[in-house]
Amino acid sequence: LAKTTQPISMDSYEGQEVNITCSHNNIATNDYITWYQQFPSQGPRFIIQGYKTKVTNEVASLFIPADRKSSTLSLPRVSLSDTAVYYCLVGASPTDTGRRALTFGSGTRLQVQP
Amino acid sequence: KAGVTQTPRYLIKTRGQQVTLSCSPISGHRSVSWYQQTPGQGLQFLFEYFSETQRNKGNFPGRFSGRQFSNSRSEMNVSTLELGDSALYLCASGRQGASYGYTFGSGTRLTVV
Predict the structure, then answer these.
(1) How far, in Å, are A105, A106, B54, B58 from residue A3 at the CA level?
(2) Using a CB-CB distance cutoff of 8 angstroms, which residues of chain A are in contact with residue B45?
(3) Strand order across the B64-68 sheet
(4) Whether B3 contacts B43, CB under 8 Å
(5) Pairing between strand B31-38 and B42-50?
(6) What is the pLDDT of residue A43?
(7) What pLDDT, in 10s, does the model give residues A89-102?
(8) For A64, which DSSP code?
(9) Which of B44, B56, B102, B109 best tests the A interface by mutation, with the highest count of A CBs <10 A?
(10) Which terminus of chain B has fewer CB atoms gathered within 10 Å of its CB, N or C?
């Protein structure tokens, strides 16, 4: 499974846009990129998943360059409630029947201040 | 719709004892995975079940085992508990072919004393 590298922590202020970049140089052709959010003492929550270019949902956007060796999670206008740990994962292909183990890295601890 | 339900929410056990944790996946989800989360090691994959069969297993000792029932509910068992087994144990369920990732439960906080 492809290893991911993310910043350990980031700070932001309410109302700002936050971009968290994840590096995954060894991503395989069939791999998808998935981001999860985790609050203390809770399970991770799925945010967004993509394969290439750009994906947007009501919560975030995911930008994936053509070489797919990195990806950027974009959170528009963050609030205090966005303070959490964000994990970038590679390999959880929806149609892959064989590999179902999610490999979590250390994640990025985002602290949003007022 | 109901999410992933894990019971109990908190548990305190003594070294050497065994423990069983339960996970009820989202209705219709046949894949159930278990993860251990500790401050030192982060989130680590334990095993994954699909249709009552273990499909994947992480790098954990044989004291950690699991099973899945015909209704997709899953249990995880840890025998001969050690202090280092203290962790948040998370269960995740998923539907094959889904593009929305896995849904995690809130976990069971196990403390071994």
Answers:
(1) 8, 11, 24, 16
(2) 101-103
(3) B5-7, B19-24, B74-78, B64-68
(4) no
(5) antiparallel
(6) 93
(7) 887 565 554 456 67
(8) E
(9) B102
(10) N
